């Protein structure tokens, strides 16, 4: 046997499979991150909504920005978005369907609050979910809106 064959065989048996193992931080395209029990408060005008965040590096960084007030713009009559002051870590996945009340990160700097349910092929990092979406669409209204996210009590 040639030395090259022995080296290649050894790599395939011992090294190759290790390269193919998923990391602990990876998500499949359809894995919905779990929500924590830590509540945060979202203020939109006179309305207040409870936000349940995921347990992730993204939300840890987001929490370090709180309290945070953002001027959010409307997009496609189903979501509000705003640029964050700095990039957050990402773990994007394809949810397949967006639910009204989802709070997501698009890319690493765009915070998105969805107020309609619809199918999607885009990838997002899930940050959390608004617990009770009753009145959310009306509170967000048409056009831009100021939104304040702060730590819950």
From TrEMBL:
Superkingdom to which the source organism belongs: Bacteria
Q: Does the keyword Membrane apply?
A: no
Q: Where is the Cyclophilin-like domain?
A: 43-150
- The signal sequence is 1-20
Q: Keywords assigned by UniProt?
A: Signal
User: Does Signal count among this protein's keywords?
Assistant: yes
Q: Name one Pfam family in it.
A: Cyclophil_like2
InterPro entries referenced in this protein's UniProt entry, alphabetically: Cyclophilin-like, Cyclophilin-like_dom_sf
Identify this protein by name. Answer: Cyclophilin-like domain-containing protein
Name the lineage.
Bacteria, Pseudomonadati, Bacteroidota, Saprospiria, Saprospirales
């Amino acid at each position: 046997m040639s030395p090259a064959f022995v080296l290649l065989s050894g790599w395939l048996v011992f090294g190759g499979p290790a390269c193919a193992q998923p990391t602990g931080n990876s998500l499949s395209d359809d894995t919905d991150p779990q929500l924590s029990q830590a509540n945060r408060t979202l203020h939109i005008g006179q309305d207040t909504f409870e936000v349940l965040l995921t347990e992730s590096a993204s939300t840890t960084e987001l929490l370090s920005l709180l309290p945070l007030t953002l001027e959010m713009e409307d997009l496609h009559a189903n979501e509000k978005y705003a640029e964050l002051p700095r990039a957050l870590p990402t773990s994007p996945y394809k949810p397949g369907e967006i639910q009204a009340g989802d709070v997501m990160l698009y890319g690493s700097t765009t915070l998105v609050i969805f107020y309609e349910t619809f199918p999607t092929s885009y990838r997002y990092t899930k940050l959390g979910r608004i617990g009770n979406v009753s009145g959310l669409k009306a509170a967000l209204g048409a056009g831009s809106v100021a939104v304040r996210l702060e730590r819950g009590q």
